[in-house]
Amino acid sequence: MTPASEKHEEIKDAVEKLFALKPDWMRFYREVMGLQGLVRRAFPTMDAMAEFEQTETYHEIQRMVTELRKQPLSKEIEEEETKVITIRIPQSMHEALRIEAYEYRTSMNKLCISKLLKFIDTEHVPAAFEDQKPAADKEKEPAAMENEESEAGL
């Protein structure tokens, strides 16, 4: 077995054990996919993460998150603070999301979270400041970039 496939098996085993405990989806996501989660520690670079997102293990994790999101959150779940993000989208996109949420019989919030949890091919993400970044920044871990943004007041 190659080191990469061993890593995938270790992740798969750990994720299945956690899933069997039926945690709330936020805890599961944090411990598996969060910045300090199992997957991010195993695949710290953008390229490594993009490669992992093409695997069956990743798709199984996504299925597990979806299954756990079906459970109602209990009122006691205050372990992780929730944040609000505001995005600017055209009215036509807002209307399309509203209709899609209605068709799925869900809220726009749940629909948008589902969309945020999906794999996004990097070619579909415009990098507005790519030409202004020093080459060293392109390989930084997400946590390092987040800390820099916090310090800069972004």
Seen as an oligomer or otherwise, the chain set is: single chain
Overall form = globular
Beta-strand residue fraction: under 5%
**What distance lies between the first and last C-alpha atoms, to the nearest angstrom?**
44 Å
Query: What Rg, in angstroms, do the CA atoms define?
Result: 17 Å
Residue stretches low in confidence (pLDDT < 50, at least 5 long) are 132-140, 147-154
Please count the beta strands (DSSP E, at least 2 residues each): 0
Average pLDDT works out at 80
Structural classification: mainly alpha
Tell me roughly what share of residues is in helical segments.
55-70%
Number of helices: 8
Which H/E pattern describes the elements? Answer: HHHHHHHH
Largest sheet: none
Gist?
The chain has 154 residues and is mainly α. Helix content is 55%, strand content 0%.
Describe the structure.
This protein is mainly α. Helix content is 55%, strand content 0%. α1 packs parallel to α5 (56-69). The protein is globular, with a radius of gyration of 17 Å. Residues 132-140 and 147-154 have low confidence and may be disordered.
In terms of topology, how is this protein built?
Elements: H1 3-20, H2 25-32, H3 38-42, H4 46-52, H5 56-69, H6 91-103, H7 108-117, H8 142-151
Helix pairs in contact: 1-5, 2-5, 6-7
